[in-house]
Specification:
Layout: H1 38-46, H2 56-68, E1 71-78, E2 98-104, H3 115-128, E3 135-138, H4 147-157, E4 162-167, H5 173-185, E5 204-207, E6 213-216, H6 232-238, E7 247-251, E8 255-259, E9 263-269, E10 273-279, E11 285-289, H7 290-300, E12 319-326, E13 331-335, E14 339-343, E15 348-355, E16 360-364
Parallel strand pairs: 1-2, 1-4, 2-3, 4-6
Antiparallel strand pairs: 5-6, 7-10, 8-9, 8-11, 9-15, 10-14, 12-15, 13-14, 13-16
The structure holds guanosine-5'-diphosphate (GDP).
Length: about 375
């Protein structure tokens, strides 16, 4: 084992002895200028994920450490999966530290969405969830929108202290850090980014010009995300890559919408009303009658209703359902990691079905 070599992709300590274990890199890789572990190498060049997992305990340890430091915390959430990527426990760990809240992937939302309104909504929602951020920013780490402004805000708000960037897996934390590094140094893609959850492994230390550091922490795995129940192929379909085109449905009572075979939305009662779906453009929405829905699901999941695909339906968890009363107009029913349905009018009863283990929430509409 080489002393003091760390993977520039995920931050794990490099070792050359044990192939199947974390941090492995072949000896030849150590000759290169940029050293990355084999896992990051594969991910980067072949889009292939080698399974290595950090336990929740390890994440808690890191969060605990952050609570003890004097630092600025930058918390990143995926604006497309706000509730699912929230990290509910964080406010208990931040101690006296300031938290800057960042909504990433703003490029996915329809252009018509007003940024100021969304920021207001984020502040309101954060407060409801027990967190009072010093400020809220919207960015697209992938496109670069808002990153420079955020970098400036971080520099001001940190008041000469260290910075910890936290967020759940898949929120785009690595993409963001890569952007920041590029801003500072012009080095491209030194940190692994990928569509697969759980790929950043250890604290990555990015030195700041006053001797302090910006630390990238491991992404905390969010077990309630849809991403954990679909294959790579399915994940590609449900992860939106560009601006979402909202789809409006005028539903009669007792009509059902299927989102592929991954989730189901039943409109139970309330007269003819309009509903707007915000999901990946690639995900098929199938409308049917409520009384036929069970049978259609049994007969067509994996075929007409995909993902999951034929060979995956056997391992796919059964649906569980949850009923909601829509008391106010513009209320969202959120399927964590998949998207949401905005109930545009008040006064209806709806039922959401999701695979057992995936979160469903109701919220004041984001848009
Ligand atoms: P991490 O697990 O939080 O480090 O997330 P990654 O940086 O690996 O990104 C997870 C996925 O989100 C990848 O597929 C990225 O391409 C994608 N992603 C990251 N930032 C953005 C963004 O600003 N917009 C969009 N549309 N996708 C993004």
């Amino acid at each position: 084992e080489k002393e003091g070599l760390y993977c520039q992709g995920c931050g794990v300590k490099i070792q050359t002895e044990n192939k199947g274990e974390i941090g492995y890199a072949p000896a030849s890789a150590l000759e290169r200028d940029v050293i990355i572990c084999q896992r990051c190498f594969r991910l980067k060049h072949y889009n292939e994920l080698q399974a290595v997992k950090l336990t929740d305990d390890d994440f808690l340890k890191i969060l605990n450490e952050i609570g003890k430091t004097d630092a600025l915390i930058v918390k990143i959430v995926d604006i497309f999966d706000f509730n699912g990527s929230w990290l509910p426990g964080l406010h208990r760990f931040v101690g006296h530290n300031k938290v800057l809240l960042v909504g990433n992937k703003v490029d996915l939302l329809p252009k018509s969405v007003k940024k100021t309104k969304l920021i207001h909504w984020m502040k309101y929602s954060a407060k409801e969830l027990g967190l009072k951020p010093v400020d809220v920013f919207l960015i697209s780490a992938a496109k670069g929108d808002g990153v420079r402004e955020l970098a400036h805000a971080i520099d001001e708000l940190r008041e000469g202290k260290d910075v910890y960037v936290v967020g759940c897996t898949n929120v785009g934390k690595s993409t963001f850090i890569n952007r920041i590094i590029k801003e500072y140094s012009g080095v491209e893609d030194v940190i692994t980014t990928s569509q697969f959850p759980g790929t950043t492994l250890d604290l990555i230390d990015i030195p700041l010009d006053d001797g302090k550091s910006l630390f990238d922490t491991p992404g905390i795995i969010n077990h309630h995300q849809m991403a954990h129940y679909v294959s790579e192929k399915g994940l590609k379909i449900i992860s939106p890559k560009k601006e979402i085109k909202p789809k409006v449905y005028q539903l009669n009572e007792r009509q059902t919408l299927f989102f592929g075979g991954l989730a189901r939305f039943d409109y139970i009662s309330g007269g003819r009303k309009s509903f707007t779906c915000y999901v990946s453009n690639e995900l098929n929405i199938h409308r049917t009658k409520l009384e036929k829905a069970d049978q259609i699901y049994e007969e067509h999941k994996g075929e007409l209703l995909t993902p999951p695909f034929t060979d995956e339906v056997q391992d796919f968890p059964p649906f569980v359902k949850q009923e909601f009363m829509i008391r106010e107009s513009k209320t969202d029913i959120v399927f964590h990691g998949l998207g949401w349905v905005t109930c545009n009018e008040a006064g209806s009863k709806v039922v959401a079905h999701v695979p057992k283990g995936v979160g469903v929430t109701i919220r004041k509409s984001l848009i």
